[in-house]
Amino acid sequence: MKLLTLNFLTCARKTCKSLPAAFPLHPREAELEQVETDMNAALIKNILPRLEWDAMKTVTTELGLPNLPAETPAPEDLATADGEPSQTLKDLHVLLMDTAVVSGKLVCGNCGHEYAVKEGIANFLLPSHMV
């Protein structure tokens, strides 16, 4: 599961859906993997305004990854004067597109429920008593 995906996931319990503590899910005992992919600058630029930046900062801090800037980078910060990708864009690409959680847990900050991640896939099926 790419780190980008964590920016769109919340606890599956109905009681947690509307509570701010249920987002983002917090990775625990996470094993990370980096798989190099081709740079897609347009994708990163289009995704950036849709990201919950504070949530991404929280996740990267919890995983022990390099700190993100305090604010979402501006579009002009993503390219150099000669049109080449800036280091900021390259770093975001590696973080969002190349880095994945292979195994571990995703924990809800509200109810504490743990969702297992195995082989890069999170299991969001809840036991019947929690639905």
From TrEMBL:
<feature type="region of interest" description="Disordered">
    <location>
        <begin position="65"/>
        <end position="84"/>
    </location>
</feature>
<dbReference type="GO" id="GO:0030488">
    <property type="term" value="P:tRNA methylation"/>
</dbReference>
<protein>
    <recommendedName>
        <fullName>Trm112p-like protein</fullName>
    </recommendedName>
</protein>
<dbReference type="InterPro" id="IPR005651">
    <property type="entry name" value="Trm112-like"/>
</dbReference>
<dbReference type="GO" id="GO:0002098">
    <property type="term" value="P:tRNA wobble uridine modification"/>
</dbReference>
<dbReference type="GO" id="GO:0160102">
    <property type="term" value="F:tRNA (guanine(10)-N2)-methyltransferase activity"/>
</dbReference>
<dbReference type="GO" id="GO:0000470">
    <property type="term" value="P:maturation of LSU-rRNA"/>
</dbReference>
<dbReference type="GO" id="GO:0008276">
    <property type="term" value="F:protein methyltransferase activity"/>
</dbReference>
<dbReference type="GO" id="GO:0030490">
    <property type="term" value="P:maturation of SSU-rRNA"/>
</dbReference>
<dbReference type="GO" id="GO:0046982">
    <property type="term" value="F:protein heterodimerization activity"/>
</dbReference>
<dbReference type="Pfam" id="PF03966">
    <property type="entry name" value="Trm112p"/>
</dbReference>
<dbReference type="InterPro" id="IPR039127">
    <property type="entry name" value="Trm112"/>
</dbReference>
<dbReference type="GO" id="GO:0035657">
    <property type="term" value="C:eRF1 methyltransferase complex"/>
</dbReference>
<dbReference type="GO" id="GO:0016435">
    <property type="term" value="F:rRNA (guanine) methyltransferase activity"/>
</dbReference>
<dbReference type="GO" id="GO:0043528">
    <property type="term" value="C:tRNA (m2G10) methyltransferase complex"/>
</dbReference>
<dbReference type="GO" id="GO:0070476">
    <property type="term" value="P:rRNA (guanine-N7)-methylation"/>
</dbReference>
<comment type="similarity">
    <text>Belongs to the TRM112 family.</text>
</comment>
